[in-house]
Amino acid sequence: MRNKKTKPKQKKQTKSKTKSVAVQQTKGRLEVTRSGMGYVIIENGTGDIMVKPGDFATALNGDIVRIKVIKENSRTGKKEGKVLEVVTRKQTEFVGHIQLSTNFAFFVPDTDKPMPDLFIPLTDIKGAKHKDRVIARLVKWDKEDKKPVGEVVSILHPDNANDAAMKEILAQAGFPLQFPDDVLEEAARLPEHLDAEEIKHRRDCRDILTFTIDPVDAKDFDDAISFRVLGDDKYEIGVHIADVSYYVIPDTALDAEGYKRATSVYLPDRVNPMLPERISNELCSLRPKEDKLTFAAIFQMNGKGEVKQYWLGRTVIHSNHRFTYEDAQAIIETKEGLYKEEILLLNDIAQRLRKKRFSKGAINFSSQEVRFKLDEKGHPIGIMVKESKEAHQLIEEFMLLANRTVAENVAKQQVNKKPIPFPYRVHDQPDEEKLAPFIQFAQKYGHRFDMSSPEAIAFSFNNMLKEAKGKSEQHVLEQLGIRTMAKAIYTTENIGHYGLAFEHYCHFTSPIRRYPDVLVHRVLASILSGKPELDKKMQEKCKHSSERERAAMECERAGNKYKQVEFLKGHLGEIFEGVVSGVASFGFWVETVEHKCEGLVSIISLSDYDDFRLVESDYSLVGRRSGRIFRMGDKVKIKVVAANLEKRQLDYEWIIK
Fold first, then answer.
1. Is the pLDDT of residue 475 over 80?
2. Other C-beta atoms within 10 Å of 252: how many?
C-alpha cells in the first residue's frame, strides 16, 4: 500500500515546473538592480542566475562571486541561486555620509544600488562630524557579522565639489583612492641607488644620446629614445622602457595592488596611479640626468626605416634631456633647436614607418583629445582640442615598432610544441552586420566600400577618411566608423591587431601605468633567460586587465564630461556653433565645434517647430510637416539652457539660423 501511495506523489513532482537540482557551483559577476534583486552573470555565457536579496551573503554590486544553484525551472531553464563567497570585490571605497552617535558611527552610502551601512569605530572616523560627506573603505565583513566594518578614508569638503566628484567617479568604478600602508611601506624600502652588480648584467647605454618626449605636465616618464650613427645610412635606435618588473616582484603587496588596479586613471585634474609615486614618479621615471634601469628593444635601421636587426634585453640608461611634445614639434617645424639633427632624422624615419603601416592596411582614424585649462581651485576656465602632430607620431611609431617586435619574438617561442601564455593586444575584424548600416550611410556622401576582404575594408576606410578630411561629414564618419569597430582587448589567443594591420602585437612600452606591460616584461625576461614562464592564469589576468581598462576609460570620459558641464555652466544662455553627433527618438545630440561639449536638444523643445520622427537607417530626425532634417554631421546653432553637474548632463536648444 505504501508503494501505491508514493507513486502518484513521484509523478506529481516530475510535473512541477521548478525542481531542486544537484548542487552546482559556478562563478560570475553579481549585478544588483535598484529594486534589490540580484543576478549573477556567468563568465562562460551560459545565462544568468537570479539571487534574492537575502542570499547575497557579503556580496555587493559588481563583485565576482562563487554561487550555488538551488532551483531551476525545467521548462524555461531559469535558475535561482545563493552566493557562497566573494571571490573579488569590485569596489571597496564608497562615497556617503557619516551618522555619529555616542559610542559609534555609521556610514550611509550614496548609491541607487542597495547595500548595507558600514559600522565605523569612533577611532576610525578621521575627524569626521555628523552628516559629513566622506569616502569610507570596507575593511572587514565576515559572514557571521550583520554589519560590515569600515573606516573613513577622507572627508569631502562642501566647498570643493570638484574634488568630491572626481573621487566619486574613481570610487564607483572600483579604483582605490589611496594605497594601503603595507604597499607604501614596501615601495619606501626599495633602494634609491642602482645596484652595481645588477648593472653588470645589463647592456650599458649610458654613453649613448638618450632623451624623452612627453606631455608638459607628465611626471611618469616610462619611455626614452636612444640614438647613434653606426655608419653610412646605418643607425642604432633604442626604445628604452622603465624596468618596473625589476622593482615589482610577483607575490608581493606591490604586485597585488598593481594587478588589482591594472591601470592608471587620467582625470582632468589628477592621475590615480597604478603604482605608488615612489615607483611611478621617482625610481622608474626616466628623469633627465639620472641613471635608470630599463628594458629595451634596440634596432639597427637605415634611413628608409627598414630594420636590419634588433636586440631585446635589459639596459641601463642616462637620459640627456627631457623634451615636451611642444618642444619637439617646434624643432620639427623650425628645424632649429637642441639635438635638431637627431630629432629631424628620427621624425623622418617615423613618418616612413607610418606611411608603410597605412599602406599595409592600418586604419588612419585621427585622434582628438580634450584638455582643460584649470584655475588654482580646479575650475575649468578654458577647453583646448589637441590633435596628434608629428612629435606625437614620432614617439607613437617607435613604440608601435617595439610592441610589435616583442610580440613577434614571443610568438616564435614554444614549450612542448605549445605557445607560451602571453598577453597579446588584439583587435578583431569588423562585424559585417554592424558595418552594413554604416556603409549605407557613408554612401550618401559618395563613399564606396569594397567588402571583398578585411584588407579591402581597411583600405576603403582609409580612402573615405582621406576624402572626408576637412568636410562637414568628417567628424560624424570618424565617430560612426569607430563605433562599428571591435574593441581591442588583452588575450592569450593571438588573432592579430586589425586596426594596426599587425599580425602580432602587445603592450610593452608603458609598464608604469599598465599592468599587462609588466606581464609582457616578465614573460620576455623569462624567455631571454632560457627558462620561459608558463603562467596558467594568464588568460584570467588578461580578462581582468581588459575590464579595468574599460572602467578607466569610462572614468576618463566621466571626468571630462563633468569638466565640460562645469565649464558651460558659466555660459548659460550663450549661443555656439555645433555638429549633430547623435540622434534618438527623444531628440538629437550636438557637440560644440569650439569645445567638443556634447548636449541634448530634446524632442520636446522642437515640438513648436514640427513633429519629428526618427529614421534609424539615415541617422536622422525628420519633420513630418516641414520635411526638416537633423542628420548626424549637420552643422547647427544651439543655445546652452541647462548644465546639471550631478548628472553630468547638458541641455541645448536649437536656434533657427
1. no
2. 14
Dig out the grid coordinates for 372 from the structure: 582643460
Q: Are 408 and 425 in contact (CB under 8 A)?
A: no
Q: How far is CA 113 from the centre of its chain?
A: 24
Distance in Å from the first CA to the final CA of the chain: 91
As a dihedral over the C-alpha atoms of residue 268, residue 388, residue 242, residue 265, rounded to 10 degrees, the angle is 20
The residues, ordered by sequence, that sit 6+ positions from 120 with a Cβ below 8 Å of its Cβ are 98, 104, 105, 106, 107, 136, 149, 150, 151, 152
- The tens digit of pLDDT for each residue in 372-426 reads 999 988 899 999 888 889 999 999 999 999 999 999 999 999 999 999 999 999 9
User: Any residues with CB less than 8 A from the CB of 503 and at least 6 apart, and which?
Assistant: 408, 496
Q: What is the DSSP string of 52-76?
A: -GGG-TT--TT-EEEEEEEEEETTT
Please name each of the domains of the chain with its CATH number.
2-88 (2.40.50.140), 93-156 (2.40.50.700), 185-425+496-558 (no CATH), 429-485 (no CATH), 570-655 (2.40.50.140)
Percent over 70 (pLDDT), the chain:
96
Residue with cell 562615497: 95
Chain segment 157-193, per-residue pLDDT in tens: 888 888 999 999 999 999 999 999 999 999 999 999 9
DSSP string, 302-339: -TT--EEEEEEEEEEEE--EEEEHHHHHHHHHHS-STT
Q: Which residues of 189-228 are buried (b: 16+ CB within 10 A; e: fewer)?
A: ebeeebeeeeeeebeebeebbbbbbbeeebebbbbbbbbe
Confidence of residue 15 (pLDDT cuts 50, 70, 90): very low
**Cell numbers of 603, please?**
524632442
Instruction: Write the CA distances from 385 to 326, 370, 597, integer angstroms.
Output: 14, 5, 11
Q: What is the pLDDT of residue 367?
A: 65
Read off the pLDDT of residues 128-139 as tens digits, 9 standing for 90 and up: 999 999 999 999
The helix (H) or strand (E) run that includes residue 348 is helix 340-359
Contact between residue 49 and residue 24 where contact means Cβ atoms under 8 Å apart: no
Which contiguous run of DSSP H or E holds residue 236? Answer: strand 234-242
Between strands 587-592 and 575-584, the pairing is: antiparallel
